[in-house]
Amino acid sequence: MSEALQKPVGAAQVPLLSVRNLSVEFAGKPVVQSVSFDLAAGQKLALVGESGSGKTVTALALLRLAGDAKLSGWAYFKGRNLLAMSERQMQAVRGGDMAMIFQEPMTALNPLMTMGAQIAEVLQLKQGLGKAQALRQAVELLAATGIPEPARRAQAFAHQLSGGQRQRAMIAMALASSPKLLLADEPTTALDVTLRGQILDLLSDLQRQTGMAVLMITHDLNLVRRFADRVAVMEQGVLVEQGTVAEVMTAPRHPYTRRLLSSTPQRDVIEVPADARVPPVLQAKGLRVSYPVPLAGVKGWFRQGRFVAVQGADVLLQPGRTLGVVGESGSGKSTLAQAVLGLLAHEGELRVAGEAWQQPAARNVPHNRSLRRKVQVVFQDPFSSLSPRLTVEGIVAEGLLVHAPQLTASERRAKVVAMLGAVGLNDSQFPGLLSRYPHEFSGGQRQRLAIARALIVEPDLLVLDEPTSALDVTIQQQVLRLLQQLQKQRGLAYLLITHDVDVIRAMAHDVMVMKEGAVVEAGSVQQVLGAPRHAYTRKLVLAAGSLDEELDRSLLN
Fold it and tell me: pTM for this one?
């Protein structure tokens, strides 16, 4: 184990971090108001709340990274007030005694530097090591986080690593300076359920070995149950409740905490029976999707190899039903969805609303354009999938310009207004709604816009690619409820791509489990999730369900 990780575990008699009446203002507008909490050495505190509650701003204020914000109050770390330090003094604290893991490693890591070079840079700046020694210790730190082949990964760039590997590299970088306090901002939000468990176990192990304190910022209550010792709940910049995890989770005192705890996905779907006489909306037999890859050695000079991303999948989806496709990153879920959407060439039989894509699937021929009206998609991140240059009216009406060019401008506008109303957006709530831009809406509201854009052309099939994974628990519940309502009203078929087993339980009629491109188990949601036969399915279900079981055991003890 690296010297950077060998630190004695000690219990301090006074708090390592003591925050009193911390307030943060931007341009005179308060976003954090009189927040107070203590964090002892070796303790894990979770700061919980929805987007906009002030969690991340609180952490950034402690590091004095909140831009031009006006800070007031006290934040004593190791007996020194962080808010009264000079910028030069804070530079010694940042990345030294205090380190931070950011939510999205792809935006936090330098794309022009290898992982080893980025970690070594911290070691050189904070510990004064030479370049060669820093690179050797960077490999040790990567090994300590469980990355396979750490010497090879140290030579890789961020885009060459998986999501879990990038997050492990971020953790290694944060631990390079042997911090006393680690700030972790949503470190598992973008990861699969099994990877989340691995990252949490890793952080717990490293925390026990080093004795550091951890301030975890999250909206994931399952994560809090599994990881934290104490929890503090924030609502609109105010700390409304704090206590031990068992106290807050089992007997919440504040209404907002109770609302967060009740915001788990609820099943409310029509149990449409499978009927062989009803033509399927989606049917695939022996579906296979592969990509060209270079071959090593001399062979690569003359021909390419093939990487098979989807291996012989059979799919059957009827109107009014939801097929959930679940699996880890790299399992082939998104590749399957792209083939269904006509974006990837494929082998085997694939029919949408009884019609096949004209190959190659990406060809924009009249037949394919007509078929695209019947299958639409809602992506994971509505902010990146909605054009920032188009107004709400332009975004939602775009499909009509292609698929219903005969409509007049007034007819298109009437359809747009009606569709926005159907997804819960209207001019009374948002004056000038049609002329607004995506950045003027919250994450949940942007996802409603994305759903309206998809449904405006009246498709038979809606592909939902992780439609709620980027949303808070309460907003996730609202979007799922909207999707359930629309399915009941319109008889829509959903192909739901997700790694969240709770979302599958709430939405799906049938489930297909994918691993490394192959379908390892399929059947009804009750059968697959209630009594899984395959070991991989049992692993996924356990990773999603064991969080509550661990809390139950802790309470019984």
Answer: 0.76
